[in-house]
Write a structure and sequence with these properties.
Number of strands: 14
Strand content: 25-35%
Number of helices: 5
Shape: globular
Structural class: alpha+beta
Order of helices and strands: EEHHEEEEHEEEEHEEEHE
Largest sheet: 8 strands, mixed
Radius of gyration: 18 Å
Length: about 270
């Protein structure tokens, strides 16, 4: 099977063949990950960003990351004043029994805000993550993913970074970090008080029109949603997935008039 062959029914590449890409890293790029948590790097150390050895099916995502503009991802962009709390999320792609998949987690149902909502692993930058304009978000994404899911960051290859986005309701400025789960490790809810479960979703399910809908909040806000793995993925997470699927060329026509109502607690 050729590297770029696509499944006729999903549009998602079905291959395990790897390509040898070009390294795309900033001036602060470093060598590979070290032996301990947070990638094993000293505080503030650089994180390599490379497409070397990336599976061919991720090439469209890597290309999109290099060319997409912030306005193409969201209408909510960071304030020009620089206000907002800097944070990062890890968008981690892997290969499972059903092919390409994405790692997500579900927030605990007892939390005061966004209880039960699926999301990417991630959180606010800490001082030890380093410069928020360079490697800080990359280190934060890996650190938070390790703290929340227990994954071994040494098995994650960062291959791209999307433009910073903004979540008005929380004032978070979010840097989406793209990762390839080169060496998968066991994952699960590290703190059940915060995380109900950690799970993966096949990309084929995310592109299946039967699993897509428009989530409508009582406030009037609406946006893309995915009904997968017994979960309703909506909000910021669904918006980013929707744009990745679109710009990677994996999107299939779906019924945008199909609505899923949310309640005020969402």
């Amino acid at each position: 099977m050729a590297d770029d062959r696509r499944c006729e029914t999903t549009g998602v590449p079905m291959t395990h063949t790897h390509t040898h890409g070009t390294t795309h890293a900033g001036n602060d790029a470093a060598e590979g990950p070290g032996p301990s948590g947070g990638g094993g790097r000293a505080p503030g150390a650089a994180v390599p960003v490379t497409t070397d050895g990336l599976p061919a099916w991720l090439d469209p995502v890597a290309r999109a990351a290099r060319s997409v503009r912030p306005q193409q991802l969201s209408r909510f962009l960071p304030p020009e004043s620089g206000a907002g709390r800097q944070s990062a999320v890890l968008i981690l792609f892997g290969e499972g029994k059903r092919g390409p998949e994405l790692l997500l987690m579900e927030r605990s149902g007892t939390l005061r805000s966004h209880a039960g909502q699926p999301s990417f692993p991630g959180g606010a930058l800490d001082p030890e993550d380093g410069d928020q304009a360079t490697t800080g978000p990359l280190r934060a994404a890996l650190r938070e993913a390790e703290e929340e899911t227990g994954l071994d960051p040494r098995g994650v290859q960062v291959f791209g970074v999307l433009p910073r986005l903004y979540i008005p309701v929380s004032s978070f400025v979010v840097t989406p970090v793209l990762g390839w789960w080169r060496a998968p490790s066991p994952v699960g809810a590290v703190d059940p008080a915060e995380t109900a479960r950690v799970f993966t979703v096949p990309v084929a399910d995310l592109t299946d029109p039967a699993n897509r809908a428009t989530a409508v909040h009582p406030s009037g806000h609406s946006g893309p949603a995915f009904l997968v793995e017994s979960a309703l993925v909506w909000g910021f997470t669904a918006g980013v997935i929707d744009r990745i699927v679109h710009y990677a060329g994996w999107e299939r026509p779906w019924d945008r008039a199909r609505q899923v109502p949310l309640d005020w607690r969402a």
